[in-house]
Amino acid sequence: MATLKHQLLALLHYQLLWRLVLLLSVIAIGLLATTSSDYPIPSAPSDKVNHFIAFFELTIVTRLAWPGLRTIWYAPALLGFGLGIEAVQASLPYRDFSLTDLVADGAGILIGLLPWPGTRKAGKRDLRDSPESV
Questions:
Q1: What CA–CA distance (Å, rounded) separates 22 from 82?
Q2: Which of 1, 64, 74, 97 has fewest C-beta within 10 Å?
Q3: Which domain holds residue 72?
Q4: Confidence (pLDDT) at 43
Q5: Rounded CA separation 44/99 (Å)
Q6: b/e map of 3-23 (b: 16 or more CB within 10 Å)?
Q7: What is the pTM for the complete model shown?
Q8: Cα separation, 21 vs 27, whole angstroms
Q9: Signed CA dihedral, 36, 41, 46, 49: sign only
Q10: Percentage of the chain exceeding pLDDT 70
């Protein structure tokens, strides 16, 4: 019987799940970034913290969804998504374009690029990941 650790490692390798999580995250972040706040949305006290957390999460999930993809491909795409959000917000009467939001997005991406447990070798299985290695 596989241990909890091995079950969690197997979950980290399930790329289809992480691709679905990424798609849902992009949709949710896009909606939250462009909606008016007529109803309470749980968030951090600072808008910049919200941006940081959102793009940190997007980076980690992207790394899990495509572990072999080089950073040069997805980091600019994520920052471009942040720029797209800001461009849409500039045209909304209840939102503003903010370069500091882009800086917070970039900071979230940079911290998400650090080595985190489960992301460094997500695409490369080795003997330590097998249940027989215990």
A1: 15
A2: 1
A3: 4-36+44-133
A4: 66
A5: 19
A6: eeebeebeebbeeeebeebbe
A7: 0.81
A8: 10
A9: negative
A10: 79
